[in-house]
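ARCHIVE CARD
CATEGORY: sequence design from structure
SOURCE FIELD: tokenized fold
FIELD CONTENT:
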């Protein structure tokens, strides 16, 4: 059923570009809690056959950042909710580019502006796979939820820094996450 590859194929890249949603999976090295985060918006880019990045927006936790900083392991999953059934997974190691990083401006220029942007996650992909997705339900995309953008647009940079310090400074397992201010 499933097929594995060493790179992101052209067919995978086309499929990924059509998706409105993707999932990011990470875990701490010591066997702590696995994190699986759904992501929306126009926030994912394929940079080449073995590299991708996505826009990491401020949310209630910062598990992905903490796990990536600790061990780098990351998996992305894309599901077809319409059309031909398909699931694409990308496996690799990632790094975090925060606003303080000199590479941030170039990386952020790949995406629409979002007021709650906290980082760009860049991943080097060493394995990809696709599988049938026969049991994934059909679903219709209606529109993006704008509440996250609206929320952070109403806040100041100091509000964002305070939120990161209070809610995003460590993972639920206590690993350091957003340790820097805007």
């Amino acid at each position: 059923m499933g097929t594995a590859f060493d790179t992101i194929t052209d067919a995978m890249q086309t499929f990924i570009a059509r998706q409105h949603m993707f999932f990011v999976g990470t875990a701490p090295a010591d066997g702590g809690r696995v994190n699986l985060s759904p992501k929306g918006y126009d926030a994912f880019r394929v940079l080449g056959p073995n590299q991708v990045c996505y826009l990491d927006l401020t949310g209630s936790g910062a598990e992905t950042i903490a796990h990536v900083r600790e061990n780098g392991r990351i998996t992305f999953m894309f599901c077809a909710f319409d059309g031909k059934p398909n699931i694409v997974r990308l496996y690799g190691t990632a790094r975090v580019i925060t606003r303080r990083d000199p590479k941030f401006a170039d990386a952020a220029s790949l995406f629409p502006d979002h007021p709650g942007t906290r980082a760009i996650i860049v991943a080097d992909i060493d394995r990809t796979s696709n599988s049938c997705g026969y049991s994934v339900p059909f679903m219709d995309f209606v529109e993006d939820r704008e509440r996250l953008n609206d929320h952070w647009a109403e806040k100041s940079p100091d509000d964002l820094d305070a939120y990161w310090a209070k809610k995003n400074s460590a993972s639920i397992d206590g690993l350091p996450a957003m340790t820097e201010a805007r």
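CARD ANNOTATION: The first helix runs from residue 10 to 18. Strands lie at 3-5, 22-26, 35-39, 44-48, 51-57, 73-79, 87-98, 117-131.
SHELF: design records, drawer C
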